[in-house]
Predict the structure.
Amino acid sequence: MKSLLLSLSLPAYFSLKVIYARRKYSIPPPATTGHPDFERVFRAQANCSEYFPLFVITLWVAGLFFSQALSALLGFLYIYGRYQYFHGYAESAQGRLAPLYFTAKVQWGLIALSAFGVLCCMSRLHLGVDLLGSLCEVLGLNQLE
Ligand SMILES: CC/C=C\C/C=C\C[C@@H]1O[C@H]1/C=C/C=C/C=C\C/C=C\CCC(=O)O
Ligand SMILES: N[C@@H](CCC(=O)N[C@@H](CS)C(=O)NCC(=O)O)C(=O)O
């Protein structure tokens, strides 16, 4: 839940940064060009927004169907990575790349957990097979939260 609340405040923070950049470089809407420093801030916010729905949906589904703890951990890592991406991109186009690769890996992790969680739930409901329970047993773990 904390991870979800934190992630919902991040887009607002990025939008505020674009508003400040518009004032700083005197670029009123609907213009989106005019100064390279503004354009990078604008693109950083747009890129983060593009991936945001996928992030929130997979964060939610992975938490619901797989593990809240693991989903929250990946959520924090993603938010941290997107924060780094935004500020890296605001500095230079090159600065966005390392955090972008990092967040891409975390995003794929959330996609995988969501898919596996839903698969486990379906197999338990429709086939009576507890995939997650068997996996935990094989790995010698207690059932994940
Ligand atoms: C259903 C799956 C949909 C999306 C997959 C999830 C995550 C996608 C990741 O965030 C995106 C990954 C981007 C990867 C970019 C790779 C290369 C970088 C591109 C340009 C570098 C060249 C340069 O500017 O110097
Ligand atoms: N809308 C993105 C889609 C692809 C994407 O996410 N690209 C990454 C890696 S090249 C990016 O950082 N794009 C910069 C941007 O969107 O401004 C784009 O135009 O590039």
Remarks:
- Residues 97-127 form the longest helix (31 residues).
- Residues 51, 100, 104, 107-108 surround LX4RDXJX (ligand 1) (CB under 6 Å).
- The two ends are 14 Å apart (CA to CA).
